Amino acid sequence: MVSCYQKVRRASWQASGWFFGLDDETVYRIDKSILEEKFEEKLTPIPAAINLSVDEVSYLKYHRYLTNVVDVDRRAVIWNDRGRKTEILDRYYEGIGQDACEQIESVALDGARTYISPTTKHAVNATIVYDKFHIRQKLNWAVDMARKQELRKARKENNNELIDLMNCKQRFILLKNKGNLTTNQTNYLTRLCQINEPIYKAMLLKESFLEVYNCSQPEEAQKHLETWIKNALSSTVDTFKIIAESFSRKLQYIVNWFKKKISSAISEGINNKIKRLKRMAYGYKDVEYFKLKIHQHCGLLNPRRFPQ
Predict the structure, then answer these.
(1) pLDDT at 2 over 50
(2) Whole domain around residue 16: which residue ranges?
């Protein structure tokens, strides 16, 4: 059984079953049984941490998510559960207890109220940080939505030059960091901004927001953000108005990054590993087993990083 468990950690059920002469169902049951035992040994009671990152990952189509809590210092998943509603994260905080909650120093989040609310309620001493990675995602979303709106207009007007410049194959140039653009990509972007004012304004708003991360002090950052929000709300780019309203409500959490430079980039890296794990198994029908596999590959049940 142990040999089978070790094999499944590195290969698929099918490959492991072929190696040991077992069917897929038997391999699955052996692996899950051993993982459940190890879970009880290392993850019960629920582990606490000082610096956390909270994020979700999709495990099925149609908006089926798991919430993962990551210990930033150990760079490992320490808890997960199905869903991403407020009560889901409540379970983690209630599970570690009030004393452990009061020891939490910082929590990096994606800005979702369903994560902010329970964190504010339980981790009373924690600095809540709206993660830089997710803010950039929001800005890119606003630029891409502006591109789609202008592309629809260009198609109605049969403006072939704009259609060529704004099609799906070119969208990644708008989303790329300005400093990473090649000469050809820079020329493309310059031409697009010359002939399309909404895209030009959207790019200006994106770049001007990102300048906040050149600030050295929280007070300087807050002043920059307040000015940016005012400019975005008075602009004609509807998508930036939407995120400006959101950022105004969560301004303090954005500024907190300058006080505690914690990031959920670790969670995003772990999410990529989880997606690869899901592809390797061609999906998981048993969500509880999937949660255990996440702990095995990305958490405290990983024998390479945390010897048993």
Answers:
(1) no
(2) 2-42
